[in-house]
Amino acid sequence: MRRVWTARAVGALAGLVVGGTLAATVWAQQLVADLSSHLIAINTGFTGTEVVLFGTTDGAGDVAIVVTGPRGSVTVRRKERIAGIWLNATSVRFEQVPSYYMVATNRPLDQFVSRPVLERHQIGLPQLQLGPREQLSPEELAVFRLALIRNKQRAGLYGITLGQVSFLGERLFRTNIYFPANVPTGLYNVEALLIREGEVVSAQTTPLVVSKVGFSAEIFEFARNQPLAYGVAAVIGAIAAGWLAGAAFRRV
Amino acid sequence: MQVYLPIAEMSVNALLVLGMGGVVGFLSGLFGVGGGFLMTPLLIFIGVPPAVAVGTQANQLVAASVSGVLAHWRRGNVDVKLGVVMLLGGLVGTVVGVWIFGLLQRIGQIDVAITLAYVFFLGGIGSMMLVESSRALIRRRAPTARRGKLHRHIWLHGLPLKMRFQRSKLYISALLPAGIGAVGGMLVAIMGIGGGFMLVPAMIYLLNMPTGLVAGTSLFQIIFTTAMATLLQAATNQTVDVMLALLLLIGGVIGAQFGTKVSGKLRGEQARLLLASLVVAVALKLAWDLVVEPNDVFTITSGSL
Fold it and tell me: What is the ipTM of this complex?
């Protein structure tokens, strides 16, 4: 509780100094948020998991949560019918694609925030910057962009709808962030934004690590760091298993 | 029971994969084929990335063929000399195949290439076998069938480097089994299959090998080509998931033992007719997938490939 009060005090001060406009994160204690866990551990039994984000604001306002996975390049290919069969014809490579992307708000975005602000903070799928490498007409690009998002949504890695941030009273809020079994590993950014009168007044970024642990991590590291030794081990293991089964069945 | 696959980076139902391994293993023991031609499409169907399906399948086939060969070995159904000659060609074919696989992956046509290869090889060989085995079945019913020569001679048998294979009672050019092995090796690398469905008929119809020796001998050389493919795929593409392979091979080796036992009760042409129908069915399904418009004409690939 004491932390909350301190946060409020600093937040109020920050509000006075910069006049309620965009505050630097150091000052931004108008909003405090944290995750129920900062590590998603992928072990052998992993089937996806949920992380709870909770926080508090220093007064009324809207909250938007943006979760972004590690960025990397993605190639989108379009199949065309050539000589009766469907072949990959055109392809576009995007360089800065988040491997995971999810937005949660307490009410529909267009009700409390304007498009330029959404674009500046890359809130929402339409505003996501993906960095296409090829030179294409805007219409073509838009088609490929939508296809990328659609495929990511089908894999469960991009939110299909906005997540729900629920307020408990005026200041406490929480939301559940779901990560499916195929969640890519790496460093995730969980950004909590406080929005008042259409402007972002406070922002806080919390890191979240998605990592393989235990047996599956060991296998993955082995395969990546010593690929040849891994291959040899895989072959020897297979020969042993085959032999064992053959021998076992002989006795039966 | 869900299990996370560390290389495929996905979670699968362990019982489903075990069951798939068991059914395919049974067929593999029954017909003396690796069963990869069924397993690779099945794995892709449950969501395993095609490259991982192909690499892992090669690993799993090592175990399946070892346990299959043991059963044939005890019955004396392996022609080691012929197997080794095929193997020499097979290793060359595997290296070439892994190289082609990488090339197709870079230009983004690997999925279509895999499917086309399936349709072409499965469809062609399957229909040939279907015609031949039904003829053989009909001929068996007609008791007046004329006894022919021990085997027919075609131009292929006139190639140089003749070798004697006592076990199979053959005197043929070594280039012939080596060439068949090379094509088999390429199929291992590109399609994630042992190539048994191609090797078995080739050995029967091109080499005129005694049918009883075909299954054991083809499995014998498949051990080595699949081992080679596993090594190369692991070293170059890092697409071998040992967790998935383990699940598949537990189901596979058990199924294969039962299959081998049942295979003794089937007549040659009956087994061939069954195998041919299965092969043709898979080919038709894949051909249909190529022609019909996909749900989404767009696909995405992460990473620099």
Answer: 0.80
